[in-house]
Amino acid sequence: MTLIALNKPFGTMSQFSPHPSRQTLADWIALPDVYPAGRLDADSEGLLLLTDDGVLQARIADPRQKLAKTYLAQVEGVPDEAALARLQAGLDLGDFQTLPAQAKLIDEPDFLWPRTPPIRYRAAIPTQWLEIVIHEGKNRQVRRMTAAVGHPTLRLVRVGIGALDLRQLGLAPGRWQEVAPQSLGMSGPARGAAPVRSRPNADRSNAGRNNAGRNNADRTAGANRRRRPA
């Protein structure tokens, strides 16, 4: 079982199949047979999980697991207490009702990387950062939530899924690392769970080949150790 944590760059599609105008996951990861466990919009950044295990993929996406998803959102204007209360209580977005969420104002994160291209600033409209924690993960949910309370999202970064936190992993955009399924904090045993093995890619052009080579080397070394007599 393999579970990969990727810091997905802005503009990258959450797919391996080619796209006519955008980068895809194949530009950053070249491991065979891993697939996204959930999605992250092209214009959103941050933590995306990938796995080669269908059972684990389904468990991560299962709403019964109630895995919290933590986002940092830069929005137009400064939400007041009434707007925050609406986000926290749940919103009717027309096609579904959001569950109660956590939402609070935060200072501009000092760990964030510059976005390319940068957001469009308007001198007459201030911006504010929010930390929002949800459990559903519907299509463009956080963007729709902030727009519904009058504060459109300008930049959106997912930093947490369950107990796994991008800020603790320290991954730069385009970098990935293999993590243990237990690090998500899901209920019940994680079949085939293995300890964390850190394998960040060296650079964009050789990321997949270098990491794939280390995968094979790790597995071969492990097999040789197991075959040695005691």
Give a short synopsis of this structure.
With 230 residues, this protein is an alpha+beta fold. The chain has helices at residues 54-61, 81-89, 141-148, 166-169, 207-227, and strands at 3-8, 35-36, 45-51, 69-76, 102-106, 127-134, 153-161, 164-165, 176-178. 22% of the residues lie in helices and 22% in strands.
- State the end-to-end CA separation: 27 Å
Q: How many separate helices?
A: 5
The fold-level CATH name of the largest domain is Alpha-Beta Plaits
Helix content: 10-25%
Largest sheet: 9 strands, mixed
**Assigned CATH class of the largest domain:** Alpha Beta
Give the overall form: globular
What's the architecture of the largest domain in CATH terms? 2-Layer Sandwich
Supply the number of structural domains. Answer: 2
Mean pLDDT: 84
State Rg: 19 Å
Q: How much of the residues is beta strand, in percent?
A: 15-25%
The structure class reads: alpha+beta
Quick one: how many beta strands? 9
CATH superfamily of the largest domain, please? Pseudouridine synthase I, catalytic domain, N-terminal subdomain
